[in-house]
Design brief:
Blueprint lengths: L7 E9 L2 E9 L3 H20 L15
Antiparallel strand pairs: 1-2
Length: about 60
């Protein structure tokens, strides 16, 4: 059995006053899969909001991501 290729999908959004920068890194991920991952993240955020959670994002210190 062949070992499955590792898939990576990283999305970074830097929010600064009057500026939002986004960057994305993918490895072995098709555009259709990337869209699916974004939809999954959106669904998770909406579910957390429905449950009244305020911590819908995980925070990292610079250098930890």
């Amino acid at each position: 059995m062949a070992e499955a290729e590792q898939k990576v999908f990283l999305l970074r959004v830097d929010v600064m006053p009057n500026n939002i920068q986004t960057s994305m890194k993918t490895q072995n991920v098709t555009p259709q899969e990337a869209i699916g991952f974004l939809e999954m993240a959106k669904d998770q955020i909406l579910d957390n909001l429905k449950q009244g959670r305020k911590d819908i994002f995980q925070a990292f210190k610079k250098g930890e991501e």
